[in-house]
Design goal:
It contains 14 helices and 9 strands. The chain has a 9-stranded parallel β-sheet with strand order 7-6-5-4-3-2-1-9-8. Strand 2, helix 4 and strand 3 form a beta-alpha-beta unit. The longest helix is centred in the C-terminal third of the chain and has 28 residues. The radius of gyration is 23 Å and the shape is globular. 41% of the residues are buried.
Length: 397
């Protein structure tokens, strides 16, 4: 007992600085805003225009390789044909854009088969080449857009009508692990930003009946995606991170929705994560958020169908600023800012949009939570008025 007390006393006398040196506490990640949209550039454009691009209020961009950008392409890629783009990636002189991503799409244009090992030998080789390109371009990682632009790889039964949902899930889980392993072969610290993750299945997450939940999941348009992400999580390397980009944040109109979305990613989503992976989920999965500029600034057609059309120009900008503020507030690190009918790199930007972003970012950087409170109170008032005008317009038709 006396010996124990002496040891405890000695431990208490160790300087705090020494304890911190022995057990470093990781710094909280800085919030980062990443640009993406129909103005997505290729490496040669980035190389040529990076100084002008970096004047925009972002921490990085999502860009893509020309032609070689489909994750489920089973055709073997020829690195020699890709070399000119690798040269462009090497030559990009990043300065303020510190967190950049190459984009991969899930469009299933070549009839990818989850059970075809020969296809997946080529697919994983192509994924390693994608990750190599990202590494050469000093990107922090890759973006994966799982939306099926064409044949849907996530719907059951698809090509597998003779197999059970559980059997197909197991195979997709295996491919998700291969997907992650291939990317980590070149980028062991990969940041994999996903547009849709487990949070997509919000309507199922609180269903306590496992059998019923699986039955409902099997009928979902995206039903196999959950198994894919469990496979990726299982294979995640110690310093890899998977960011749930939460594309559904496009449509949020109040701060509570942002906080609820964060809770869904961090907690409710665990319903679809196996027991053995839940501790890993806490470490490797980050909550991200999304912004859809067109949705908030009355750019999305048909405009009369969307709320922003019934707001004044000044109100739209405050709406946008509010969502930038709360997207950053409720993300673990990354927010991606998406647009279609504008172009940041050609100066085709709505008046006031950039100033709204900078105002929200400045308030976040200065820890001014009162700024968010003010924005939230304003938004509640004019959103309600806009919804009323929208309803009145609908009655007139």
């Amino acid at each position: 007992m006396k010996h124990t007390i002496l040891l405890l006393t000695a431990w208490l006398l160790v300087p705090a600085a020494t304890l911190h040196a022995q057990s470093p506490i990781p710094a909280r990640p800085a919030k980062k805003l990443i640009e993406y949209g129909w103005d997505v550039p290729y490496p040669d454009q980035v190389r040529k225009e990076i100084r002008a691009m970096e004047k925009r209020p972002f921490d990085g961009i999502i860009f893509r390789l020309r032609e070689w950008n489909h994750a489920f392409d089973p055709r073997p890629w020829d690195e020699t044909q890709l070399q000119p783009q690798l040269d462009d990636l090497t030559a990009i002189e990043w300065q303020t854009f510190t967190d950049n991503f190459l984009c991969l799409y899930a469009a299933n244009n070549w009839k990818m088969d989850w059970f075809n090992d020969e296809q997946w030998t080529s697919i994983t080789a192509n994924l390693r080449l994608s990750a190599k390109a990202a590494r050469i371009g000093r990107c922090v990682g890759l973006v994966f857009d799982p939306e099926p632009y064409g044949d849907n790889p996530w719907a059951y039964p698809g090509q597998n009508g003779d197999r059970s949902f559980a059997d197909v899930e197991a195979q997709v889980h295996k491919r998700g692990a291969q997907f992650m392993t291939a990317l980590q072969a070149e980028l062991p610290k990969v940041r994999l930003l996903t547009f849709f993750h487990q949070s997509l299945f919000g309507a199922l997450l609180d269903n306590p009946d496992l059998q019923d939940r699986q039955q409902r999941l099997s009928q979902q348009h995206w039903g196999l995606l959950s198994a894919f992400w469990n496979g990726a999580l299982e294979a995640a390397a110690p310093e890899a991170r998977i960011i749930d980009g939460n594309e559904l944040a496009y449509y949020m109109t109040n701060r509570e929705q942002f906080f609820r979305a964060y809770h869904t990613t961090r907690q409710r989503s665990l319903s679809l994560v196996s027991d053995g992976l839940r501790a890993k989920h806490a470490v490797h999965v980050q909550a991200g958020m999304a912004l859809y500029v067109d949705q908030m600034l009355d750019l999305r057609p048909p405009q009369e169908q969307y709320l922003s059309h019934y707001l004044t120009p000044a109100e739209r900008l405050r709406f946008f600023e509010h969502n930038v503020f709360y997207a950053l507030t409720t993300s673990d690190e990354y927010v991606w800012c998406y647009s279609e009918r504008m172009n940041w790199w050609q100066g085709q930007v709505p008046d006031g949009a950039e100033a709204a972003i900078r105002a929200a970012r400045d308030a976040i950087a200065q820890g001014r939570t009162d700024h968010g409170d003010k924005l939230s109170a304003e938004l509640a008032e004019f959103i309600a008025a806009g919804q009323k005008r929208m309803a009145e317009r609908a009655k007139e038709k």
